[in-house]
Amino acid sequence: MKRYLLAEFPDVRALSTALRRAVEEKHLPDEILSPHPTNLEVPRDEHRKPIGWVMFVAGAIGAALGYLMQWYSAVYAYPFLSGGRPPHSWQAFMFVPYELTILMAGVCGVLGWIVFAHLARPYHPLFVSDASGHAVQHRYVLVFSHAEKRDWIEQSLAPIEIHEVEA
Amino acid sequence: MTASVEGRRRWIAGNLGGLEEINARICAPILDARPGWRWWVAFLFSGGMALMMVVVAAWLFIHGIGIFGNNTVVVWGFPIANYVWWLGIGHAGTLISALLLLTRQKWRASLNRFAETMALFAASMAGLFPIFHLGRPYYLYWVIPYPNVQTLWPQWRSPLVWDFWAVGTYLLFSLLFWYVGLVPDLAMLRERAKSHFVRRLYGAFALGWRGSDRQWEVHERFYRYMAALAIPLVVSVHSIVSLDFAASLEPGWADTIYPPYFVIGALYSGFAMVVVLAAALRWGCSFEPFITHDHFDVIAKVLLTASVIMGVSYATEWFWSWYGGERVERNLVAFLFVGPYAPLYYCQLLFNVLIPQALWWPAVRRNIAWVVVISILINVGMWLERILIIWSTLSHDYLPSAWRLFLPSVWDWLMMFGSLGTFMFLFMLFVRVLPAMPAHELRKLWVEEQGA
Fold first, then answer.
1. Which residues of A touch B187 (CB under 8 A)?
2. Rounded to an integer, what distance in angstroms lies between the CA atom of residue A30 and that of residue A36?
3. Chain B nearest C-alpha distance from A151 (Å)
4. Which residues of B211-220 are buried (b: 16+ CB within 10 A; e: fewer)?
5. Is the pLDDT reported for residue B167 higher than 80?
6. Are A66 and A99 in contact (CB under 8 A)?
7. Contact at 8 Å (CB) between B241 and B84?
8. What is the pLDDT of residues A51-75, one digit of tens each?
9. CB-CB contact of B107 with B294 (8 Å)
10. pLDDT tens figures, A31-50
11. Which residue among A75, A104, B105, B398 is buried most deeply as judged by most CB within 10 Å?
12. Quick check: B447 and A41 CB within 8 A?
């Protein structure tokens, strides 16, 4: 059983001050919860998720598949004469790969977004706390997993509320 | 420096008490307020119209497209004009959202959600019309490449097959883009909903969103990538629609100006529809703090710019018809100005080019009623443009013995107004079920404007 402390702050300025203090004193929070993007991040030793690369590769595969499908069907599987144009009418074959590039990049991007943002997990241990609900609406929250520091958090970071969760 | 910061335009008006008031106002039409009489009137009226469309579609499928005014010469008539018109409106929503995001326009925050929703509904309406027009709609799946015992494949050189890929991609991509932006707001609704079932429903679609810094970082980056993909997509889709016309050899259609001309026309009619919906939401949902006079001012400037480009496009068509020297092209322009459709053509020029010039005056741009009236006229003008592109060319092409006019039947009108009603019906449902404003973006904007 792990205990979490959720310290609530009323605005971005208070959150930013508390985060700076926690980082200076080497009590890194696990994560920040906020109702909108804030440009504040917990300093972590990890790489950015390669979502752009996922989209790029998926788009390239979409383009290749779209073109190959048309080439195979028009040249081998079902060649027929249409207005004297050659079976391999590459100019007219540009549209489908173009659309499939974007579609595949978008669809695989959404899958990447779900995986990288740890989504599609309807339950999370922090959901039992009110602070978690506040954080998607109007409050800013620092989540700590070192619950024994409660006194330090209360005195040094001065949150407006502090919640304890066992998970 | 301080003065310029203080003098900067604010996009959220009034003295809102804080983030909680923003949330409460956005969620009120969904969770708190009983729908008022205004909503019920609009809902029942549009529901009746939607029902009418279902009846007309059923009658069409029983009797075939002979119930429309299409004849052996003007084979495209209302259904294809409605398709192009709706798709134009459908394009602008995603284009507005993506373009304004990438150009960091803060006023986007009040418009993007309902504009994207408008795009989804309008593109859905658009997608129905080619099916209605097929004659044998049950063979629609022939444009899809699928394994079949006859080893048949679609005709890849046909613009109608390109249309299928373009519109299909656009609908799916727009749905994804819209949903990704919606997820943080669904998490808010999950927390605020009172009934257990509704909480679970919103919770399921919120995918467990918590607003953690990791989630926001991935979300922000991904959302921008999607926007960057959406713009070339939108441009390609209406360009491809224009190729339905431009890839033919008909006078007035086989023009290289068609793709950009269609794209700017789409943006124009879509922005005009955004104005109408913005005014309706402002009035019906009490969104005055989020949709201000300044919003109408900036949209009106976009409309004005688009109207000038439309005017230049029309003039370019006339010029090239004359300068190209083709008899049939010159005759077509003369037919536009003095033929039986001339009154409609003058209305088109008046609504799309002349009347919007009133928006040069700041007082007109900041008067919501005027901007709405001009926007409705623009939408009528753009519909006239779409129908006249079809009517004029097809009823006056190379063979004088085949010149014939189009007379719409009552079913044409019922289907067109039915689609408008269905669009309105879907929108009325939307405002009661999902947040019409992106709450998380407005929160961010409010915090920035307050300097908090």
1. 136
2. 18
3. 24
4. bbbbbbbbbe
5. yes
6. yes
7. yes
8. 999 999 999 999 999 999 999 999 9
9. yes
10. 999 999 998 989 888 888 99
11. A104
12. no
Closest CA to B221 of A13, A31, A15, A55: A55
Q: Which amino acid does the sequence have at B91?
A: H
Report pLDDT digits (tens) over B78-113: 999 999 999 999 988 888 899 999 999 989 999 999
ipTM exceeding cut-off 0.90 for this assembly: yes
Indicate the residue of A34, A124, A138 with minimum beta-carbon distance to B23.
A138
Cα dist from A83 to A29, A87, B8, whole Å? 68, 11, 60
| B436 and B105 Cβ atoms separated by less than 8 Å | no
Q: Does B4 contact chain A (CB < 8 Å)?
A: no
- Report A:89-128 residues touching B (Cβ under 8 A): 89, 92-93, 95-96, 98-100, 102-103, 105-107, 109-110, 112-114, 116-124, 126-127
* Pair of tokens at residue A2: 């792990």
> What is the token pair recorded at B287?
């969104």
Q: What is the pLDDT of residue B3?
A: 35
Strands A161-166 and A140-144: unpaired
Phi, psi of B71 (to 5 degrees): -125, -170
